[in-house]
Amino acid sequence: MAQLTGAGADEALNGPCAAEPDCPPANVDALVTDDMARDLGWLVGQIQHGYLAAASAAVDSVPGGLRGLYVLGASLCGRAPNQIEVARRFGIDRTVMVHLIDQMEDAGLVERRPDPADRRARMIVGTDHGRAAYDAAQDRLRLVEDHILAPLAEDERGSFASMARRVVEHLVSIDPTQAESACQRASGELDKHAPLT
């Protein structure tokens, strides 16, 4: 089984006090107000913060971290027809995307190949080394997920992931082309229901 190692891995999985023997355990009730406990944005933000802190250590061998891992995954399953399309899908600036692909290509994870359908475009294709790096990173991310979701029973974890996926599918269905962001649409819905003053 893969192990999460490297600088900051212990802190990422166990918090900033993990290496400090005199650091008292956090009193969640003292930190979280009733309003915060009901605030979806705050709750999702805390989960995201914990996940990103641990996941960044888990994928530190992939150029670009999680963003690079998503691009690598797309390149391995044939969903990376060209840099522009992948950049749009993952919300990556085009110039950042070029630099990221350069780094991934230098690391031997991907190759740029001419697109047979459009000679001006370059496909991003994952290599065998890229597949091995991707699989190893996914193994480490599963450990991160196990840690983050530790308070949930196995069936609750599946339900949590399924419900989160449905919310994401809803948001993507609102705006699959990014012409209007899901946040703008949600803001408009809230404005419709705002009390008149």
Automatic annotation (TrEMBL):
Gene3D superfamilies: Winged helix-like DNA-binding domain superfamily/Winged helix DNA-binding domain. Pfam families: MarR_2. Residues 33-169 form the HTH marR-type domain. GO terms for biological process: response to stress. It comes from the Bacteria. GO terms for molecular function: DNA-binding transcription factor activity. This is Transcriptional regulator, MarR family. The lineage of its organism: Bacteria, Bacillati, Actinomycetota, Actinomycetes, Frankiales.
